């Protein structure tokens, strides 16, 4: 008898990958997203240099950047920026914290829904920036006014998204968690919180945008520091480049804060698979 020889399968080799590693979705899209802003800035610069735009009405971006560099070197811009960031942070913390607390109370408890949601629904119909005269009577024209405006601006977007995020959770998921033996706190953590996180992040992005908008108005009322004060002071002396610089700083702060929230959201909601643009 001849001994049967075992036939070994050929080794499976992994497919070759590019030296830079597997391609990630979205890699290389940053330049495409920045194309339009760069073209707008270039057109603005050309229009200003050619005289189409009067310098006293709208200075060139290069002139605005030169002004920004000058104010940065002497410390003026940094001082006003830190004060604006402090007001925005405190107001967002107060308004956002209260919004999440009341939104969760109204979303989770029937008595909370009956007691909290109706007055909030009524108050949201009032433009919070239109409350400035009343707020001046209540809290004065100092720092309390500016922080109150930021808190009001941040409250409503975050409250309604917290409320909607909790109420939109499929009740069958909660029942399934109860059937699996999860207690109330475990269901709140693993089902309710995770289910409401996408809406919470959306509300936070909207709240930050509203906070910056409120701060612009607040810092133009009897302020001594802040980007809004810097713009108002520049208006008195017809320094258009400083006014435009202040607007760009506000826009940049809003953009950076939104990008930061989106990065945290992407890393937190790794389990979520949403529709991607094609």
Q: Determine the N-to-C terminus distance.
A: 64 Å
Q: What value does the Rg take, in angstroms?
A: 27 Å
Largest sheet: none
Count of alpha and pi helical runs: 10
Q: Note the beta-strand portion.
A: under 5%
Number of strands: 0
Structure notes:
- The longest helix has 35 residues, at 184-218.
- With 278 residues, the protein is mainly α.
- α3 packs parallel to α6 and α6 runs antiparallel to α8 (184-218).
- The protein has helices at 30-49, 61-73, 76-108, 110-123, 132-139, 143-167, 171-179, 184-218, 227-236, 240-268.
List keywords for this structure.
globular; 278 residues; mainly alpha; 71% helix; single chain
Write the layout of secondary structure elements.
Blueprint: H1 30-49, H2 61-73, H3 76-108, H4 110-123, H5 132-139, H6 143-167, H7 171-179, H8 184-218, H9 227-236, H10 240-268
Helix pairs in contact: 2-10, 3-4, 3-6, 3-8, 3-9, 5-6, 6-8, 7-8, 8-10, 9-10
Briefly characterize the structure.
The chain has 278 residues and is mainly α. Helix content is 71%, strand content 0%.
